[in-house]
Design goal:
By secondary structure, this protein is of the alpha+beta class. Helices cover 17% and strands 42% of the residues.
Length: 124
């Protein structure tokens, strides 16, 4: 095999292995507040999602729906200025009693998109 072909083959194998490695690096939701499947007597003032890597707020979003299907208005999603792994969504008004479903998607700093959902409750 010529030197050029060997060099190209080596380069192709190296590039393929780098692509395979970066494809596995997706952000993961590590924790949330309010927590999944938990009910509290107090309404949260914000939704806070903690990811395994930094996220880009302008490409990420959180939607909240009451068990009756009504979408709850929220403020804009932002990252915590001290921790880019935290996506924070303010709630401008207290939540009424009931179950709520959070549907979220987040884009990491390396542009991987992930999504998920969970529920929590407010008791009064």
């Amino acid at each position: 095999m010529s030197r050029n072909k060997m060099a190209l083959s080596t380069l192709a194998v190296l590039a393929a292995s780098l692509l395979a490695t970066s494809a596995n690096a997706h952000p993961k939701l590590k924790s949330a507040s309010p927590a999944a499947d938990v009910s509290s007597k107090a309404s949260p003032k914000e939704i806070r999602l903690n990811f395994s890597e930094g996220v880009i707020a302008k490409f990420s979003d959180v939607e909240i729906k009451h068990e009756n299907g009504k979408t709850i208005p929220t403020g804009l999603a932002v990252t915590d200025p001290e921790d880019k792994k935290q996506l924070v969504v303010p709630l401008p008004a207290p939540l009424t009693a009931g179950r709520y479903k959070i549907t979220w998607h987040a884009v990491s700093e390396d542009t991987h998109r992930v999504k998920g959902e969970y529920s929590f409750g407010v008791d009064r």
